[in-house]
Amino acid sequence: MYEVEIGIIGATGPQGSAIGARLASIGYQIVLGSRSQEKASQVAQDIIEAWPTHDLKIRGDLNEQAARCDLVVLATQWEATVPTAMDLKGELAGKTVVSMANALVRSGREFHALVPARGSIASWLQASLPDSKVVACLQHVPASELGAVDRECSCDVLVCSDFDDAAGQVSSILDLVPGMRTIHCGSLSASFAIESLTAVLLTINLKYKTRSSVKISGVGLKPEAP
Ligand SMILES: NC(=O)c1ccc[n+]([C@@H]2O[C@H](COP(=O)([O-])OP(=O)(O)OC[C@H]3O[C@@H](n4cnc5c(N)ncnc54)[C@H](OP(=O)(O)O)[C@@H]3O)[C@@H](O)[C@H]2O)c1
């Protein structure tokens, strides 16, 4: 069990509850946040009951309480990411804040990437939270894979941030997930390409009836501190 407590804001959706379950499965204490205390507690209870053989330290609370944790993940629907974080600016100051959001729209049998202010949700978030350290990652990992805590999460996770220490902190946590490998992609300027790529992967999923993810090849490529 790690001392670090991780808060997840908007954790009642598929991705927030999945990352919560996964991080709890590797020994972190998790606070699942929501706008509704009752909804958060119910989702926490559902996760614990879904994995009876795992000793998951998860509880539900309001987003404000999740934002008081040592490290915070934003998992609201993408449109609410920046407004929700702005409301919690004080609680998030001085902390590493993880952005998983993808601004996307579905159009028939395709997904299209939208371009948010500042080019990406993560860059917009960083501009809105100057006293926090935003780390963009996990955009390409589907909730179904992330949340299946009895299986390896076989994927690469592209990580970028304007703060090397924050990127290293998040990578050191995610690299503990069995099968997961983080790859550092530089500053948040990379988040435009990373977030947009998700639309391509989702379109591939529709066309090939599959669940694609990202694997980077390259001689000598291995996770290392930024
Ligand atoms: N789903 C995936 O497989 C996946 C994969 C990679 C990345 N992502 C990203 O991860 C994030 C979460 O995805 P998701 O599919 O779990 O999202 P979601 O189900 O659409 O929404 C997650 C939660 O956001 C909260 N929320 C909704 N509207 C809100 C508002 N106006 N203000 C504040 N909170 C609001 C709700 O929580 P409460 O009602 O409890 O407050 C909801 O349960 C998104 O940014 C998405 O782009 C998702």
Comma- or semicolon-separated keywords:
9 helices; binds NADP nicotinamide-adenine-dinucleotide phosphate; alpha/beta; Rossmann fold; globular; eight-stranded mixed beta sheet; two-stranded antiparallel sheet; 226 residues; 10 strands
How would you describe this protein?
With 226 residues, this protein is an alpha/beta fold. It has a single domain (5-208), classed as NAD(P)-binding Rossmann-like Domain (Rossmann fold). 36% of the residues lie in helices and 21% in strands. It has nine helices and ten strands. It has helices at residues 14-25, 37-50, 63-66, 81-87, 89-92, 121-128, 143-146, 164-174, 191-208, and strands at 5-9, 29-34, 58-62, 71-74, 96-99, 104-107, 110-113, 133-136, 155-161, 180-184. Strands 3-2-1-4-5-8-9-10 form an eight-stranded mixed beta sheet, sandwiched between helices. A two-stranded antiparallel ribbon has the order 6-7. Helix 1 (14-25) links the parallel strand 1 (5-9) and strand 2 (29-34). Helix 4 runs parallel beside helix 6. The radius of gyration is 16 Å and the shape is globular. The mean pLDDT is 95. Bound molecules: NADP nicotinamide-adenine-dinucleotide phosphate.
